[in-house]
Amino acid sequence: MHEVIASGYSQRPDPATGAIQDEYLISLKVPRSAWREIDFSNLEQVDPIEAIARFEHVRKMTKTGIFRRIDPME
After folding, report:
1. How many structural domains comprise the chain?
2. 53 contacts 44 by C-beta, under 8 angstroms
């Protein structure tokens, strides 16, 4: 395996119907070589936003940290 695509979603109510739906919020493509650079024994020192920025990713986030729906990578 040379790379992984990982996507995260939240279940949120549809404002038009009230029905709960899955909304993808983040999607990452992480090469194995880049994953190895993260020091998992020292995660308290890792800023998640900075770590994600190192990878090819899709996310829509406001300046106040609110995630918006995206289309995940395939």
Report:
1. 1
2. no
